[in-house]
Amino acid sequence: MSGLRFEDKIVLVTGGSSGLGAEASRQFIDEGARIFVMDLAEKGILGRLGEEKATFFQGNVGKPEDCETAIRTCIDKYGRLDILFHNAAQPTPMTTVPFHDLAKFQEIINTNLCSLFYLARIAIPQMQKQGKGVIVVTASTSALGGEYGMASYAASKAGLLNLMRTMAIDHARDNVRINAICPGYMPTPMTEGLGDLINVVQESIPQGRGGDPKEVARAALFLASEDASYMTGHALVVDGGWSAHSGAPNLLKYVPQQVSRQ
């Protein structure tokens, strides 16, 4: 035995050309998997992963026909689908509901939430046929509570979590496990638009920094592996303590500190 957790496993990664998706793809390959990447653009991912270990499919997860074609193409090529890591998402415009463009709201809900439905309705029957399978979904800490100016993104990610939970209990006895990761802030192409606000965001994180995509990818691979064999319907938070904070100000900054007796 090689000791690799994903030896000869077939993994379909959406949004796999950059950021967290690309890092997870690399880690899956390092642990023995073959990768089928679905994204809007290739962005040189095959050169980084190696064409002998990865296949690229250009498609939009917001289109049901693209989702179905991607999964069926993956199965036609490799004969199976062991793991679906659904990571693709679209960022939100920072605005309040009265000023949020209606078409953009519907687009974000479709891309971030409905896409899981489009993919799962094709992937789950294949996994049932195989006798087992795993789906891991990238949600967000935005799914766990309201966030200023992020109505469409927060709504899409919160819906994603309950869709994940419902599918998990529906298919638990089919030996299909379905879980989610909830990352906090990470420096990825999707968060580059924050500009100077990145410092404000990082200051609000108890660990004082954003997450490295490598750290978050390791959490996704854990859920995809047999190490998490008794976990389904779970949302694993990876956020440096961000969601553990109640939102109260840090009064320790203003209160004289006692000297340790040790």
TrEMBL record:
<protein>
    <recommendedName>
        <fullName>3-oxoacyl-[acyl-carrier protein] reductase</fullName>
    </recommendedName>
</protein>
<comment type="similarity">
    <text>Belongs to the short-chain dehydrogenases/reductases (SDR) family.</text>
</comment>
<keyword id="KW-0521">NADP</keyword>
<dbReference type="GO" id="GO:0016491">
    <property type="term" value="F:oxidoreductase activity"/>
</dbReference>
<dbReference type="Pfam" id="PF13561">
    <property type="entry name" value="adh_short_C2"/>
</dbReference>
<dbReference type="InterPro" id="IPR020904">
    <property type="entry name" value="Sc_DH/Rdtase_CS"/>
</dbReference>
<keyword id="KW-0560">Oxidoreductase</keyword>
<dbReference type="InterPro" id="IPR036291">
    <property type="entry name" value="NAD(P)-bd_dom_sf"/>
</dbReference>
<dbReference type="InterPro" id="IPR002347">
    <property type="entry name" value="SDR_fam"/>
</dbReference>
